[in-house]
TrEMBL record, chains A, B:
<keyword id="KW-0238">DNA-binding</keyword>
<keyword id="KW-0805">Transcription regulation</keyword>
<dbReference type="InterPro" id="IPR002577">
    <property type="entry name" value="HTH_HxlR"/>
</dbReference>
<feature type="domain" description="HTH hxlR-type">
    <location>
        <begin position="11"/>
        <end position="109"/>
    </location>
</feature>
<dbReference type="InterPro" id="IPR036390">
    <property type="entry name" value="WH_DNA-bd_sf"/>
</dbReference>
<dbReference type="Pfam" id="PF01638">
    <property type="entry name" value="HxlR"/>
</dbReference>
<dbReference type="InterPro" id="IPR036388">
    <property type="entry name" value="WH-like_DNA-bd_sf"/>
</dbReference>
<dbReference type="GO" id="GO:0003677">
    <property type="term" value="F:DNA binding"/>
</dbReference>
<protein>
    <submittedName>
        <fullName>Transcriptional regulator</fullName>
    </submittedName>
</protein>
<keyword id="KW-0804">Transcription</keyword>
Amino acid sequence: MALSKLDQYRRAVEITVDITGGKWKPLIIHYLLSGTKRFGKLKKLIGGVTQRSLTLQLRQLEANGIISRKVFAEVPPRVEYTLTALGLTLAPTLEAMKSWGEHYLASKHRKPKA
Amino acid sequence: MALSKLDQYRRAVEITVDITGGKWKPLIIHYLLSGTKRFGKLKKLIGGVTQRSLTLQLRQLEANGIISRKVFAEVPPRVEYTLTALGLTLAPTLEAMKSWGEHYLASKHRKPKA
């Protein structure tokens, strides 16, 4: 079934919101942009995130094809996360979203509204 | 309380997701980019949206300072919506989100994953 142009537009924006909108996802992607990271390193870099929450968000990003996960047969096991080619293409979009958010927050700060 | 750089980053992306992430919000903004519209016109342009749902999303956009609402004392009353200066600045960000979403959907289409 062909989607109308409008539905396509809405769906395209929505999918970006869905994929990037998790509480820790922008930060995960942000840190992986500078290279592959181990789980523990990501956890330390991000700070306030729990083990469970980070695991969940990493799984969702992996399921969406944004990151890849590699397990090394070591003791203790080493798990590394890397942005996929698709994940790398998110960089400019996230940057645009971050910039607009900053602009918004700054404008609210200048003219507080009830 | 000063936010850490990380918190600022997360908050900036999150606010953009919050403000643009409503089911009909990208479409509302999209249509208002071409100029002021009446409620009924927006409803017709968007299609599948209910009166209640459109009203709710317009109110949220108004509360966030993205659109302004003007009521004309006519019979029947005329209500018009216009993007604010702040709302206009969303255009390139929404465009980036739309483009990436299209890219994502196309890539999924090429390599279907379980």
